[in-house]
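task queued by scheduler; priority normal; single chain, no ligands, no partner chains; default sampling; output format set to structure tokens
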Amino acid sequence: METNGQANGLKSRKKENGDGKDNLWSAILEEVQNQGNTKLPSNKNVLVLGDNETGKTTLIAKLQGVEDPKKGSALEYAYIDVRDEYRDDHTRLSVWVLDGDPGHTNLLKFALNEETFPHTLVIFTVAMTTPWGILDQLQSWASALGDHIDKLNFTPEQRLESKKAQTQKWLRYTEPGDELEPATSPMKRSSRNLADELAHDDDDDAPLPEAVLTTNLGLDIVVVVTKTDYMSTLEKEHDYRDEHFDFMQQWIRRFCLQYGAALFYTSAKEDKNCDLLYKYLTHRIYGLPFRTPALIVEKDAVLIPAGWDSMKKISILYENMQSCKPDDYYRDIIVQPATRKSGGLREAEVCAEDEQAFLQRQLAALQAGAPAPRADSPLRAAQRTAAQLDGTKISMGGGSPGNEGVLASFFNSLLYKKTGSPGARAADASPAAAAARSDAAAELDRLTRAKRLASDC
């Protein structure tokens, strides 16, 4: 009986072990299946803020892969197709582009509200074509965004949680290649999903580095400096040197530290960093892999992910500044030129006098008895010319007989000059010219008869 009991116990333990193995494999398969069914969220948004002519529409069109961008007005909507190659999944990333006119900031409520706030990333755009305005524009749009966020109906706990999330994202940044698992692994992508990490944070009290997130808006922010291909024009036409570009860069990077932002220098014209910006956005929003380290060697293709930079790294730029200091006022060093060769000056607009006003003025002059001005007749003009040639003052009302004789001889030589003589022009056969010659001959006859009558008397 004891032997039978031992056998039954052994069978029971084997069965339990088998069930345990089945349960383990079932759990693994269930986990893999759940991960395979995970879809990219469709409620993510990007909000683009910046002055007009900073390339907002062109930048989004480049991210979309569109060659012919269409500029909208006020608050423009677009979307970017996002594809996860590892899961064969895709979704649409909504993009809101606000007009650069500050009068349109009241439209922010349609793009950024209590519902969309946790799912929104903000892009600030500035252009290298107006480098003197970069810092002012960044500060102006950051202030407008901060004012709008303050008006949102959030509890103090919600605001604190969103700011804490940005702090942890900054502290959790790791250099590409430093991860313990391959970045291409879907398991790694899932484990490094930023939203999931923040839900299990153990480093709430870790201090932030110097000057980092001193203004925490609770949002992911990316600063994009567009049109960096214009740097060569600044060098040729405005005598910009490397120290000027370093001076600008260190101020922009300090702004990015203040707001916990990433920094991208892009050129849609030369296709610089546009593809990397797309990959960074999908990494920041969806947790997709991004394996590009910070790029600071090429001055027109800077790339600095959020969490990489520090005041110590920025101070490296100070070594190249000879004619300026890092803390100098931005516009004292980057001065707006009085005239820009690329823009051109508008010609002064000439306004014509109103027709009725002109006619009224002429009527008043006629009624007052003032003679209306008229153009000289051909005869009078010819007489004046003859007087200048002859040195004699001619009067139509009367003159000495000798003067009239000289005048008659001069006009006769004009009227009957041979066309074949050297330097003579061909006779004008037009009706107008014939009429002018006839009038001149009649006038000469009248003068001759008047002279004769005067002599007879």
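post-processing summary
- Residues 1 and 84 are 64 Å apart (CA to CA).
- DSSP finds 16 helices and seven strands in the chain.
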